[in-house]
């Protein structure tokens, strides 16, 4: 079924539903704003593109998607791919790859490819997710520690070597702000899980930098002022050679968007005892990616942490996700200058914690107790993701995983235990 969940929800929509969705939408927007900025920066893009993606793609994923409570936007899973595409093909290349990925996802939704997630080995998903978490974490060391480096290579080993070479430039104020922000996020999450602690913690850390006059990099100091409006939509430059060149990147973006969104929808189903529509979700992801690219935004997908926040805050229908996008737009229009004061170490701390949560440390023991073939597949995918390339990691992992299943003469059924990412 490809009908958007919003259509079904509006048939019996009530005033109580709207008030619940309004409260949840505002709450999740406060969580999404600092995350969207931080993810865009870590991806090598302008921070404003993170907000644009959260607004445009976030609205459409909720309006057209197959989940009642899914929240869409930029996510950490894309950081590695987006950074690589921008570095190799420029930002215009990323925009075209995102547009192509959207078309691929729409085709997948039309041909009901949503159920194919059952055939992707769970060990592969765990492996590349942990690998992405490692890369995200190491990419934030420069700002977390306040290191002074003109250029940090994208390659994992070269990056560590470059950061080690400038270790004597460590900034104590930056480190203290990062640690304080990290502790505040963890503390607020435990004391008040429904409270938007992310933006409060990042805000407090940034206010401390301003009030104390600390020599710490800020968002405005590094990137300039954020815009207070959405850009005018336009098509990227399209040519046959460019399409062929960017097709592999588009396939990876589409794969990640599809898998991440369906994982998020599965987690949401478990939390609300509901059922999502996978093919409607894929179609919505495709439309959202196309729209995001037209506005110069990043790839987007269902965000598991933001979706869980929406549910805990009382969100009932897709209207909550649409409100979340509109609230971000309102904040962008009214308070863009204030974002310039956000401290880079505080945003780095936010992404460090995001990376830690992505790796699911509570499941490490379970991974190590899995059967030998699953451990091998997880570690192989992880190593290839970190040391080589995400495309190689996913292709190799899926191929070997399916070959192992065929060798064991097992029926190709899903062996998922729903992730808690």
Automatic annotation (TrEMBL):
<feature type="domain" description="SLC26A/SulP transporter">
    <location>
        <begin position="18"/>
        <end position="380"/>
    </location>
</feature>
<feature type="transmembrane region" description="Helical">
    <location>
        <begin position="123"/>
        <end position="141"/>
    </location>
</feature>
<protein>
    <submittedName>
        <fullName>Sulfate permease, SulP family</fullName>
    </submittedName>
</protein>
<feature type="transmembrane region" description="Helical">
    <location>
        <begin position="246"/>
        <end position="268"/>
    </location>
</feature>
<feature type="transmembrane region" description="Helical">
    <location>
        <begin position="376"/>
        <end position="404"/>
    </location>
</feature>
<keyword id="KW-0812">Transmembrane</keyword>
<feature type="transmembrane region" description="Helical">
    <location>
        <begin position="93"/>
        <end position="111"/>
    </location>
</feature>
<dbReference type="GO" id="GO:0055085">
    <property type="term" value="P:transmembrane transport"/>
</dbReference>
<dbReference type="InterPro" id="IPR011547">
    <property type="entry name" value="SLC26A/SulP_dom"/>
</dbReference>
<feature type="transmembrane region" description="Helical">
    <location>
        <begin position="48"/>
        <end position="64"/>
    </location>
</feature>
<dbReference type="InterPro" id="IPR001902">
    <property type="entry name" value="SLC26A/SulP_fam"/>
</dbReference>
<dbReference type="GO" id="GO:0016020">
    <property type="term" value="C:membrane"/>
</dbReference>
<keyword id="KW-1133">Transmembrane helix</keyword>
<feature type="transmembrane region" description="Helical">
    <location>
        <begin position="170"/>
        <end position="188"/>
    </location>
</feature>
<keyword id="KW-0472">Membrane</keyword>
<feature type="transmembrane region" description="Helical">
    <location>
        <begin position="195"/>
        <end position="213"/>
    </location>
</feature>
<feature type="transmembrane region" description="Helical">
    <location>
        <begin position="21"/>
        <end position="42"/>
    </location>
</feature>
<feature type="transmembrane region" description="Helical">
    <location>
        <begin position="326"/>
        <end position="356"/>
    </location>
</feature>
<dbReference type="Pfam" id="PF00916">
    <property type="entry name" value="Sulfate_transp"/>
</dbReference>
């Amino acid at each position: 079924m490809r009908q958007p969940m919003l259509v079904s929800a509006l048939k019996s929509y009530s005033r109580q539903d709207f008030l619940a969705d309004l409260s949840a939408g505002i709450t999740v927007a406060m969580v999404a704003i600092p995350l969207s900025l931080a993810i865009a920066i870590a991806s090598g893009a302008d921070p404003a593109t993170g907000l644009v993606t959260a607004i445009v793609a976030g609205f459409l994923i909720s309006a057209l998607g197959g989940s009642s409570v899914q929240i869409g936007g930029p996510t950490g899973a894309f950081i590695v791919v987006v950074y690589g595409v921008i570095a190799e093909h420029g930002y215009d290349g990323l925009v075209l790859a995102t547009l192509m990925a959207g078309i691929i996802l729409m085709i997948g939704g039309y041909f009901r490819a949503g159920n194919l997630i059952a055939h992707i080995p769970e060990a592969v998903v765990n492996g590349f997710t942990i690998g992405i978490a490692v890369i995200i974490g190491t990419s934030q060391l420069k700002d977390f520690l306040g290191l002074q480096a003109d250029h940090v290579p994208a390659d994992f080993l070269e990056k560590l070597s470059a950061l080690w070479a400038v270790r004597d430039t460590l900034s104590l104020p930056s480190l203290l702000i990062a640690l304080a922000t990290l502790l505040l996020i963890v503390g607020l999450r435990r004391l008040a899980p429904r409270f938007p602690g992310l933006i409060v913690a990042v805000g407090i850390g940034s206010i401390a930098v301003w009030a104390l006059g600390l020599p710490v990099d800020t968002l405005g100091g590094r990137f300039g002022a954020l815009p207070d409006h959405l850009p005018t939509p336009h098509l990227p430059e399209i040519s046959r050679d460019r399409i062929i060149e960017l097709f592999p990147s588009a396939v990876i973006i589409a794969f990640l968007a599809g898998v991440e969104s369906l994982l998020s929808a599965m987690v949401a189903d478990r939390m609300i005892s509901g059922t999502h529509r996978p093919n409607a979700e894929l179609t919505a992801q495709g439309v959202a990616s196309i729209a995001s690219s037209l506005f110069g935004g990043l790839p987007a997908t269902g965000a598991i942490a933001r979706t869980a926040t929406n549910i805990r805050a009382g969100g009932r229908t897709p209207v909550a996700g649409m409100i979340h996008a509109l609230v971000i737009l309102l904040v962008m229009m009214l308070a863009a200058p204030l974002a310039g004061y956000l401290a880079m170490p505080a945003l780095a701390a936010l992404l460090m914690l995001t990376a830690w949560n992505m790796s699911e440390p509570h499941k490490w023991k379970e991974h190590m107790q899995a059967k030998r073939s699953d451990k091998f597949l997880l570690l192989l995918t992880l190593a290839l993701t970190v040391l080589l390339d995400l495309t190689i990691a996913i292709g190799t992992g899926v191929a070997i995983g399916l070959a192992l299943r065929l060798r064991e003469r097992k029926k190709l059924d899903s062996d998922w235990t729903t992730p808690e990412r």
